[in-house]
Amino acid sequence: MEAIRYHSVRLDKDRCRGCTNCLTQCPTEAIRVRGGRAHILDTLCIDCGECIRICDYHAKVAETDSLEDIRKFKYSIALPAPSLYGQFRNLRNPVYVLEALRAIGFDDVFEVARGADVVTRAIRERMRDTSLPRPMISSACPAVVRLIQVRFPDLLDHVVDVRQPMEVAASIARAEFCKAHGCRPEEVGCFFITPCPAKMTAIRSPLGQAKSELNGAISMTDIYGLILPHMDAMMKNPDFRPSTRYGVGWAMSNGEANAVCPQSSLSVDGITNVIGVLEELENDKLQDLEFLEGNACIGGCVGGCLTFENNYVAKAAIRKMVTAMPDVHPDQDVPVNMLTKYPMKNDVPFRPNDAMKLDDNLLVAMQMMNRMNEIMERLPGYDCGSCGSPTCKTFAEDIVRGHCNEMDCIHVMRDKLKVMAQEMVALAQTRRE
């Protein structure tokens, strides 16, 4: 089992009211309500941010770095996700955002969209290998990869073994900066401007890598207000080399698929929709696909819970911007030597998260499963969440694991009290006689 030592998504206990909104919406059933407060199970949480979106009390928060953290390094580089461009309506050129990032204290800026261009070409090269399982599944969304680890471990060999664009961008940015300024790599801090908590978690607990190339992540909502006053900054970097329209397009659902494999691909956004498609794939119903792009957020990264703008408005803004950019594909823009000059492939395999396993001992696990089935027969099957578990099945599992008991189900308790009341009436009648 792959241990996750860090989670960006946290619970603010002072704000939690113990409602069941998050309980029923969590895609990996990682939330329980006990003692009037929600609890997030570290082993099952994938940091998708769904609980942050739907919590009316704002009791779920994402922990990210602050701008002050860049001061820990002699030099700092901002790596903005392309979804940042969508936060500004009628943005004509990404350079305004990049120069605004310099204005608030970063020594250099490197587009993650350029990393996406390089990753696009790297994936297309990997797809030449016909021995790899099809469809190949994008590894760009950490929440989707962790979802596969938890719920669909048999599909892990389908996940492409090319690093995420933010990791590739960090490798290139640090190397180019050190070469230009004659400094040591450890003196340079690379900070991703993130639209979601899953990226923050992927930096602290990397996927496919022993160590992340990034030093931290700053929330897009935190950055937005800081750079907004500087958006009219004049371009100071005449050597700025922009990414392609395809790299910027990665910010939207279908952006990666359109760049990597437009002829035989499928793009799915929204974690519930992704689950549905992965179930289809697990049942061998998508054999004609070459590539699958999955985004946990509606609309893609522009829909991340740490963005400022409405995801549909942001998507429209990026679409307008990329339409005006030259139609140059990464195959033409990215030199082939880039694929060997910088680390492109994972150095650690994706491993299943066996947190859902009942016990390492098969016999014990079977006994626990039998007990679960017995408990399930006594439960009403309403999946109401009033017991503090998301479904009757998870409630039965929680009982078997020793976390609660059957009387925590209000329906079981009601029936038990009804029987007790009838027995007391019968006893009272017997005494009168």
What do you see in this structure?
- Helix content is 39%, strand content 10%.
- It is of the alpha/beta class and 433 residues long.
- The protein has 17 helices and eleven strands.
- β10, α11 and β11 form a beta-alpha-beta unit.
- α4 crosses α6 and α15 crosses α16.
- The chain has a four-stranded parallel beta sheet with strand order 6-5-8-9, sandwiched between helices. Strands 7-11-10 form a three-stranded parallel beta sheet.
- The longest helix is centred in the C-terminal third of the chain and has 23 residues.
- It has three domains: 54 residues, Alpha-Beta Plaits, CATH 3.30.70; 275 residues, no CATH class; 73 residues, Electron transport complex subunit B, putative Fe-S cluster (3-methyladenine DNA Glycosylase II, Chain A, domain 3, Orthogonal Bundle).
